[in-house]
Each structure stands twice: as structure tokens, then as C-alpha cells.
Design goal:
two-stranded antiparallel sheet, 8 strands, six-stranded antiparallel β-sheet, Alpha-Beta Plaits, 253 residues, single chain, 5 helices, alpha+beta
């Protein structure tokens, strides 16, 4: 069950990792597809996903990010075509680039660029209802935050449902509903979402914490965002978030 609550002082909550979470499997088959960004897919794993309104990042910024990502994709693909795989050093460098891009986009979005349709509480509720409508049937939602111009979710797709199917369904339905509600037309969401497979238990905890803290980090006024954390992710014992080895900047996504 997802408990929807505003967490303006997230240090007051204690996070735990539910049983049965599966992480990135280093030696399991990995499906990769790209548009402007790489998207890694494995069966049964948990993902941290971000999707943003189409106008949440200025066009000039977005176009520059696309050019940088395309250059990296060409470099990676050329190396794979020539050598059959990526050396660990290049793979780590590629991941570091992805983190930098995500952090940059997140900081821009947190400045509430664009129309910020979800600053409206009724619009945010439309998004929350859509995200949770098929809970336990299509996915298990661990945490979510609906910000004024973007959404983060921590989710495990159910058997038979891919992350791509889920995001396509969420974005398609909410775009129609929000456009109707606001009397607007045209694209609502950026075509491409950011996503990452959760790497390990500490990464799961960091993502939950990041989602909980996002409204506060963005310095939003009260009731300008909606945060939901699953009961299974909240530790009623009062134990604090466990300290792990420091993660690289951006590893919370």
C-alpha cells in the first residue's frame, strides 16, 4: 500500500528495503535501446524513472544535452562494433556522463521552468491516480513524487509488463486527462524518459530518500508537490537510514 504524504522534514522518516527487491544483475542478459539516452532493461528488476513536462527544460538546454548524448552514443556504439564490448573504464565514464546530464536536467526542472501544470493540486491528483490505478496488477510502486513540472517514481514492473509499456501508458493517459482538464492542446511530456536500474540495497534507500526530499530541495511552497512512500518502505522501528560507503554524485538516481 502506498502512503501519500507530504514529507517536508524527510529526516524524520526511517527507510527500509522491502523483501523481494531485485537489483541490477551484472551477469544476466541486458537489453539496451537508445533514442537520445541509453535505456537498460532486465526482467524482474526495480527502476528509478523520471519524466518531465515538454517545456520544463528550455529548448536550447535540451538541444545541447541531446547533442552531447548523441556524441556519447556514437562513441559507445563504435567501440562495441569494433571490440564487441566496452571496457570497464569506458562504461564507468559513460555512466558518469549520464549522471551529470540527469543532475543538470533535474536542477533546471527544480527551478520550475515552463508551465508547471502540476502545481495545481487537482492535476497532481490526476497523475497520482493514473500511476496507482493498476497497482499490484501491472507494477509495485515503492515511492513517487509529483513535482510542478516533473515526476519521479521507484517502481518494479509486474511479470508481463515492461517499463516502456508502463511509462507509455502513464504518459499517454495523463496527457489526455491533463490537457482536457486545463483546456490545452499539444504535447505535455518530453518524449523520452530518464530511467536507471536500481543497483543495490543502498541505492534503493538513496532513491527513496531522494524522492522524499525533492520538494524540500527544490524549495517549493507547502502543498506544491505530492510525495508517496509505500508502507513497506517505512521503518516503524525508528531506525535511521543506514550509512553506506559514499556514493558518487548522482548515484541517488
Amino acid at each position: 500500500m502506498l502512503r501519500l504524504t507530504m514529507l517536508w522534514n524527510p529526516t524524520d522518516i526511517s527507510i527500509r528495503v522491502p523483501e523481494g527487491i531485485h537489483y541490477f544483475k551484472e551477469h544476466q542478459a541486458l537489453r539496451v535501446h537508445t533514442r537520445n539516452l541509453p535505456h537498460w532493461r532486465q526482467d524482474g528488476v526495480t527502476y528509478f524513472v523520471t519524466f518531465r513536462q515538454a517545456d520544463s527544460i528550455p529548448r536550447a538546454v535540451w538541444e545541447q544535452m541531446k547533442r552531447e548524448a548523441q556524441a556519447w552514443n556514437e562513441r559507445v556504439n563504435a567501440h562495441i562494433n569494433e571490440h564487441g564490448s566496452l571496457p570497464e573504464s569506458l562504461e564507468l565514464e559513460w555512466e558518469a556522463f549520464q549522471r551529470r546530464q540527469w543532475i543538470h536536467a533535474e536542477r533546471v526542472a527544480d527551478d520550475c521552468q515552463g508551465s508547471c501544470s502540476m502545481a495545481d493540486a487537482e492535476v497532481r491528483q490526476l497523475v497520482v491516480d493514473a500511476l496507482m490505478f493498476f497497482e499490484r496488477e501491472r507494477q509495485t510502486m515503492h515511492a513517487l513524487v509529483v513535482m510542478p513540472n516533473h515526476v519521479h517514481v521507484l517502481v518494479t514492473p509486474a511479470t508481463g509488463w515492461t517499463l516502456d509499456k508502463l511509462t507509455q501508458s502513464w504518459k499517454g493517459f495523463t496527457a489526455r486527462e491533463i490537457n482536457s482538464h486545463l483546456g490545452r492542446e499539444g504535447p505535455l511530456w518530453q518524449q523520452e524518459s530518464f530511467d536507471r536500474i536500481v543497483r543495490h540495497e543502498a541505492h534503493f534507500e538513496q532513491v527513496v530518500r531522494y524522492i522524499a526530499e525533492n520538494p524540500k530541495k527544490a524549495r517549493l511552497a507547502a502543498k506544491s508537490a505530492t510525495v508517496g512512500i509505500a508502507e513497506a518502505c517505512l521503518d516503524s522501528s525508528g531506525a535511521s537510514l543506514r550509512e553506506e560507503c559514499p556514493l558518487l554524485e548522482g548515484d541517488e538516481w
